[in-house]
Amino acid sequence: MTKPVKKSIRAVKSKASAVVEEALPLYTPLRTILGGHQASVSSPSGEYDLIALTRDGVKKSSLKSLAAYLGISMEQLSGLLHSSYRNIQRKPDHSLLDSLKSEKVLELAAFVQRGIQVIGTKAGFTQWLQTPLPALRNQTPLHFLDTSFGIQLLLRTLGRLEQGVYS
Question: What phi, psi does 95 have (nearest 5°)?
């Protein structure tokens, strides 16, 4: 009688493992967007890992990769982080950003991840970022990336685009 119980426990563990493995790809691309091994960013496996990474700080070296994914220069990225380019340039690549900048970097990386998922390619996404859109009062999406509210607006715009609503 205990054998059927063991089989059902194994089945439950197997199903739980499958759910966890299914959730992992949601966060795996963040590592790539932030430079992967070069930036020593581990693959966050959930919101708690993102919170810890925000508090610990993201390495400055991850900014180059993020800028490349956004199709912008480091000067433009420093503007999105509300910091002078010179301040960012002065830091060594291995130094950690403060929690506010780290949170913004992770928010931008999550946005890039969603944008590539909806648009389909990195090249298409970077082109979309540079294109004035009627839904954004004929401004480019890049113009809105400096605030959390702007990123939320862009995520809703991507959602409408995904649903086939003219944006």
Answer: -75, 155
Prediction pTM value: 0.79
DSSP string, 7-21: HHHHHHHHHHHHHHH
**Beta carbons of 44 and 30 less than 8 angstroms apart:** yes
Domain positions in the chain are 2-162
User: 67, 126 in Cβ contact below 8 A?
Assistant: no
Distance between CA atoms of 152 and 158, rounded to whole angstroms?
10
The pLDDT, as a whole number, for residue 24 is: 40
C-alpha to C-alpha distance for 35 and 49, rounded to whole angstroms: 17
pLDDT given for residue 84 in this prediction = 95
- Reduce the DSSP state of residue 126 to 3 states and report it: helix
- Which region holds residue 92: left if phi is over 0, alpha if psi is between -120 and 50, else beta? beta
Using an 8 Å Cβ cutoff, are 104 and 70 in contact?
A: no
